[in-house]
Design goal:
The protein is an alpha/beta fold. It has three domains: 182 residues, FAD/NAD(P)-binding domain, CATH 3.50.50; 161 residues, 2-Layer Sandwich (D-Amino Acid Oxidase, Chain A, domain 2); 34 residues. 31% of the residues lie in helices and 19% in strands. The protein contains eleven helices and 18 strands. The strands form three sheets. Strands 1, 2, 8, 9, 10, 11, 17 and 18 form an eight-stranded mixed β-sheet that branches. The chain has an eight-stranded mixed β-sheet with strand order 5-6-4-13-14-15-12-16, with helices on one face. A two-stranded antiparallel ribbon has the order 3-7. α3 packs across α4. 56% of the residues are buried.
């Protein structure tokens, strides 16, 4: 049982008290999906769209939406900010297709919610990518240049007045707007997808952890209450994928710390914050924030704790130890919130990969165990595409989704082994914090800090150091 639920989850569970029983018998199905977050749920829904008679079981160690899907900032983003890396990995034609599909995916999520009566507070009002100091200015230049070559122009430059109006802050140096991004209540989306999956006939077993993945011609998943045997298994684990040996050097679990205020309509109005626009800056330890339809401010800071050997355990299930630090950052940028009470503080299990993009594939030596994870803080929107990729793999379709380069496993570049990763990661994270602090004070960071910070895996959006 999670000790400290995120604000999003507590709010969602006030309206949805349904609990699925844990698995208590052996079961044979066509497809077993391990993980009841966005990726697992979208995969199940896509499979049912293609083959309504398919027998599908989802097993989830907590509740659906209890992991990263219910603990993030609620940014429903495209891959436009990842264009330089995506184009290197996939080439111009396929990279351009994926960029366009990611933008269409955000719209499709909103349409799906309307069609299925999922009240997740979907607000399609855009994302402001900012520089919160002079050193970050132009962090988006190479991205815009790459997109321009494809004839894509998703970003709008902002003058200082428009920047302050959209961000509610005088603390940003410059920025660009991507109108195609949305914000939403992520736990309500997860619980809504869960309801739709159940209505489609998907079997869901909560409080059911995978204890062993048994590989073979007919794979199976062993749990405390029974074994699920299936023709195909999908691993939709994100940060928890690190617990499988294949992914220990390709996925880095890392905490993001998030707070939510009490409703403060008047304070937000005085800052001009009333439209639920997503905002994030260009730090390595990124600031990200948005308001909600209820008049709350939700503010997060990335680059938190790294668990030793990637073993999450319960380390991310407690109230954020950086509550005061995150609140101080919020009040620095939006002084009108100085007196507003913080109602909740939590941690989300984000991931980092060497490319800053997720990867999908099929386990080596198996043609029926598929996986997808590593969203690097940008999963709410791209999980929709992840569901298409994994459904295509399960159905053994040779199409644009199963054949795309990001569906062929991780890139060759690997994260360092333990214990180098844990102790080295701590040094790199501390150097990133010092670089950010020096740049805030218009000082030049030391050469050593710059060098160490250059080893940080890619984050939510490119930085000047990357």
């Amino acid at each position: 049982m999670i000790v400290n639920r995120s604000f999003w989850l507590r709010q969602a569970l006030e309206h949805d008290t349904d609990v699925a029983e844990p698995l208590a018998r052996d079961l044979k199905v066509d497809t077993c999906i391990v993980g009841g977050g966005f990726t697992g749920l979208w995969t199940a829904i896509n499979l049912k769209r293609h083959e309504p008679a398919m027998e599908i079981a989802i097993i989830e160690k907590d509740i659906c939406g209890g992991g990263a899907s219910g603990r993030n900032g609620g940014f429903c983003m495209t891959w436009m900010s990842k264009s330089t890396t995506l184009l290197k990995l996939c080439g111009g034609q396929e990279g351009g297709r994926l960029l366009r599909e990611s933008a269409l995916g955000v719209k499709a999520i909103g349409e799906f919610c309307r069609d299925h009566d999922i009240d997740c507070q979907f607000q399609h009002n855009g994302w402001v990518w900012t520089a919160s100091n002079a050193a970050q200015a132009g962090a988006w230049d190479s991205t815009l240049e790459a997109l321009d070559k494809l004839g894509l122009h998703p970003y709008e430059p902002l003058d200082q007045n428009r920047l302050a109006e959209l961000t509610g802050s005088e603390g940003h140096h410059s920025g660009v707007l991507e109108p195609g991004v949305a914000t939403l209540q992520p736990a309500m989306l997860a619980r809504g997808l869960r309801r739709v999956a159940l209505e489609l006939g998907v079997k869901i077993f909560e409080s059911t952890a995978m204890l062993e993945l048994i590989r073979g011609p007919t794979p199976s998943v062993r749990t405390a209450g029974g074994t699920v045997t299936a023709d195909a298994v999908v691993l939709a684990l994100n940060a928890w994928a690190h617990e499988l040996p294949e992914f220990r050097r390709t996925v880095l679990p890392i905490a993001a710390d998030v707070i939510a205020t009490r409703p403060a309509h008047e304070h937000l109005q005085s800052a001009g914050l009333h439209n639920c626009v997503a905002v994030s800056d260009s730090r390595t330890l990124v600031n990200f924030y948005r308001t909600t339809t209820e008049g709350r401010m939700v503010w997060g800071v990335g680059g938190g704790a790294i668990p030793f050997a990637g073993r999450l355990g319960t380390s991310f299930d407690y109230e954020s130890p950086r509550r005061d630090q995150v609140a101080a950052m919020m009040r620095r940028f939006v002084p009108s919130l100085e007196s507003v009470e913080i109602e909740a503080a939590w941690r989300g299990p984000a991931t980092r990969t060497m490319t800053g993009l997720p990867f999908f594939g099929t386990l080596s030596g198996s043609d029926n165990i598929h996986y997808g994870h590593g969203y690097t803080g940008n999963g709410v929107g791209p999980c929709y595409l992840g569901g298409k990729i994994l459904a295509s793999k399960v159905l053994q379709q040779r199409d644009e989704w199963s054949e795309t380069p990001i569906a062929q496993g991780p890139v060759q570049k690997r994260l360092p082994p333990e214990p180098v990763r844990y102790f080295g990661g701590g040094l790199v994270r501390a150097a990133c914090a010092r670089v950010d602090h020096a740049q805030d004070e218009s000082r030049q960071p030391s050469n050593l800090d710059r060098h160490l910070a250059s080893f940080a895996p890619a984050g939510l959006a490119p930085t000047k150091q990357q």
